[in-house]
Amino acid sequence: MSDTTPAPFRGHHDMGGEPADAVERAEHDYALWEKRVDAMLVLLSKKGRMTVDELRRNIEGLGPDAYDKMTYYERWIYSVAQSLIQRGEISIDELGRKISEVQGRDHGAD
Amino acid sequence: MAPTESIAPGFQAGDAVMVRIAYPIGHVRTPHYIRGKPGVVERFCGIYGNPEELAYARSGQPRQPLYRVRFIQREVWPAYDGNPSDTVDVEIFQNWLEAR
After folding, report:
1. Hey, are the CB atoms on A51 and B57 less than 8 Å from each other?
2. Which residue in chain A is spatially nearest to B23 when comparing CA positions?
3. Which domains does chain A have, with CATH numbers?
4. What global pTM score does this model have?
């Protein structure tokens, strides 16, 4: 296959029609943090701080391995953070310090 | 605020269209599997900010007409063995459509 043109570009996320496992049809409850992530995107987009298109673009930018391993809302919060960094709404330093602070908390029930 | 720029709708329900064959990198809402397939406009859905621009925190202008386009499953998937009249609808922005 050395003398053929490359296959047309297809993003890993754009998997319609590709071989896949069976679709999981069961409903499931959302964890509180997942609801918070959803609410955060609603607020950010209503206030014009980011768009759902940026959310999608940054999710699509995940490597295939990360894309497959992360859960739905893990991809969302990763992408929200990426989008806000790209827009200069938050700094990487600020994000890192906040994550350290939260990780240092005494974790009771949330 | 600056005035909103929009592309005028170029298609209407019933028009025969072809999805453009193009494989750019970047944020694209047109699924890979539907590119190059023939369909018929089922309805005009309205005019929206261009997601290919909005995805990079730009204005999304000029805004693009969006259509729901209907495709015959067998023309999308050559090996499709369901009912020959089965269809699939995909919402596609005007910049991805050509008349046929």
Report:
1. yes
2. A9
3. 50-103 (1.10.472.20)
4. 0.90
